[in-house]
Specification:
The protein has about 425 residues and is an alpha/beta fold. The chain has 14 helices and 18 strands.
Length: about 425
């Protein structure tokens, strides 16, 4: 799909350019040294764009300091300010970094005021050569949109279209768009709807792809590969971020694999394939376990999502049954264990997210078919948990909220008690 080109510092995003790999720091932006150290590592690992959260106006100055230190060291990787709940922070950050990510669902609670503030943001971006990402998340659509369209892929497309129309009205085209979800089916359908809409409208903005709250380990990699590859294989997508609840350095090899594969720089290591109706049996000659996992997910994820296949078998592999189960679950065709929704963490996370997530998984592994969310903060937490049966959301200051569905049932629970309280609620439901 042909798109316009967008300039983010020294990087171009669009169909005329290779797929761009990006990631996000999980440090607190107020900790300048830790953030600089992580940016160095991410740039060295191959991140072409790095995002940092900016939860307050004071941290705009921290962001400026981080950028100045990196540039003085010769690290010119473009930086992105990730902004939620404050249009004023977005406007302030636009003169500091190469791109600002805003979320239509929480840019400003009043839609008319949001339009005014967005026009102000655009003027600052024009003056500074700053790009904008219209970064919608399924979990933060906003009440006005969900009242009109429900919590659906269509709602996601319609919400983004409003903001792209505002870009055109303001004669601003240095814009990248994303419509992320933790549900791979919802994510893929939303991007397909938007791609079709932009083609009909005659202005196709570049798309930033990602499965948000994908989790960690094999499941996080497989889930991300399923959603992202399904779209890249259709020519949809120009920049990608693999969101893992791990050290963000670990995201880069996965994202680079996807970029290289769909830029046609590498190919699947599948060595045999047998089709019997809607059942596929495949063998691979991959050089590593991670390469096998990613090849398998990309080869069959889209076909499972689109129901071209109902079953996949990984032959000649000791972990074949396990990896096939993981792939079926990632494509939302069969659930053999609990479904976990977990954000990757960022500077808004106020507790040990990775350790907590692993402990929650260990203690809930027997709850087949249940959907459990572990979220770092309230930005996307309650919204992305719309499909979850239970949720664990960090409040900060050593406290946690526990949700049943969309509703908080316990607030201000001490962290050292929260998993026990969660399990008690599940067992006594």
């Amino acid at each position: 799909m042909e798109t316009i080109s967008v300039k983010v510092g020294n990087i171009f995003i669009g169909s005329a350019h290779p797929i761009v790999v990006q990631t996000m720091c999980n440090t607190h932006t107020s900790d300048v040294q830790a953030s600089v150290d992580q940016c160095r590592k991410l740039a060295a690992a191959g991140a072409q764009i790095i995002r940092l959260t900016v939860p307050s106006l004071a941290q705009v100055e921290n962001l400026k300091e981080i950028r100045n230190i990196l540039r003085a060291e010769g690290i010119d990787t473009p930086l992105v300010a990730d902004v939620h709940f404050s249009s004023e922070i977005a406007i302030a950050a636009a003169s500091v970094v190469e791109k600002v990510r805003i979320n239509p669902g929480n840019f400003h609670k009043d839609h008319d005021k949001a339009r005014e503030q967005f026009a102000r943001l655009v003027e600052v971006c024009k003056a500074n050569g700053t790009a904008i990402r219209i970064g919608l998340n399924h979990g933060s659509l906003g009440e006005r949109i969900t009242n009109l369209y429900g919590n659906t892929p269509l709602a996601m497309k319609e919400a983004v279209k409003e903001w792209l129309d505002m870009c055109v009205e303001n004669d601003f085209y240095n814009v990248v768009v994303s419509l992320k979800a933790s549900n791979t089916f919802v994510m893929v359908e939303a991007y397909r709807l938007l791609a079709k809409q932009m083609q009909e409208d005659g202005i196709v903005f570049p798309l930033h792809l990602g499965v948000t709250e994908a989790g960690n380990g094999d499941s996080g990699r497989i889930k991300s590969a399923v959603g992202i590859s399904a779209l890249l294989s259709e020519g949809i997508g120009n920049t990608i971020r693999v969101s893992l609840t791990e050290d963000p350095v670990n995201e880069i090899p996965v994202a680079k694999y996807l970029a290289d594969r769909y830029d046609h720089l590498l190919h699947s290591t599948m060595s045999s394939l047998t089709l019997d109706g809607k059942k596929a049996v495949a063998s691979y000659s991959a050089s590593s376990r991670e390469r096998l996992i990613l090849d398998f997910a990309c080869d069959f994820g889209k076909r499972l999502l689109d129901k071209e296949l109902d079953e996949v078998v990984l032959a000649d592999c000791e972990e074949g049954e396990y990896l096939a189960d993981e792939l079926m679950q990632a494509a939302r065709r069969r659930f053999y264990r609990p479904e976990y929704i977990a954000c990757p963490g960022c500077g808004r996370t106020m507790y040990n997210l990775e350790g907590t997530f692993e402990e929650v998984k260990r203690r809930t592994a027997h709850l087949k078919g249940m959907v459990i969310a572990v979220m770092g903060c309230i930005v996307n937490g309650p919204g992305e948990m719309a499909d979850a049966d239970w949720g664990y959301v960090g409040e900060g200051n050593g406290k946690v909220s526990i949700y049943k569905g969309k509703e908080p049932v316990l607030r201000h629970v001490p962290e050292d008690e929260a998993i026990d309280r969660l399990l008690e609620l599940i067992e006594n439901k």
